[in-house]
Amino acid sequence: MRKLSLLLVLALLVIATGVRAQDKIVISMVVGEWWFAEDSPGAALLQAYQEEHPEIEFDIRGVPFPELDSTQLATMESGQGPDIMIVNSVTVGSFIDRGYLLPMDDLLANNGLDTTMFYPGMYSSALMAGQVWGLPIDTGTRMLYWNKAMFEEAGLEPPTTWEELPAVALEMTDAENGIYGLVATTGERWVALYEHLGMYALANGLDFVNAEATECVLNQGDNVQIIQYWVDLFNSGAMSQDILLTGTGGEREQSFGNNVAAMYLGGHWSADTLEADYGMTFPDDYGVISLEGSDGSTASSTGGWIFTISRDAAHPQETMDFIAWVLGEAENLVQFTNIMPSTEAATLITLEDEFYTPFKDLMAQPNTRHPIPLNPGLPEQAEVVRNVFQSALLGDMTAQEAADSFCEQIEGTLFQ
Question: What is the signed CA dihedral for 112, 115, 116, 121, rounded to 10 degrees?
Answer without folding.
Answer: 180
